[in-house]
Amino acid sequence: MxxxxxxxxxxxxxxxxxxxxxxxxxxxxxxxxxxxxFLTKEAVRLAVEGVATATAxxxxxxxxxxxxxxxxxxxxxxxxxxxxxxxxxxxQPLVPGATSGGTVPMWEWIGDEGATTFSx
Length: 120
Prior knowledge:
The protein is of the alpha/beta class.
């Protein structure tokens, strides 16, 4: 089954967009696809322990529950190191499955077989 990459640039300033991105990522990971979320800009804050604590709308799942499902399904995060540094988050602990890395590690993860991509 092919890989999936979900690129997310938005943080809690748009919790609905973040929720949609996580729903897509959870769906990919739970269906057995190797799944990577590439977090940049404000989205890097979501990879910091204890930050993703929102519910986007009435009836929406919490971000915590989506992140738990994503982790259980084997999903991982690649968190832009430039963005982490720019936001002063370099010393903050990251959520399980998250590592600091940019575009080169992302392309290495994708490899020659390619990946289905989504961008939010």
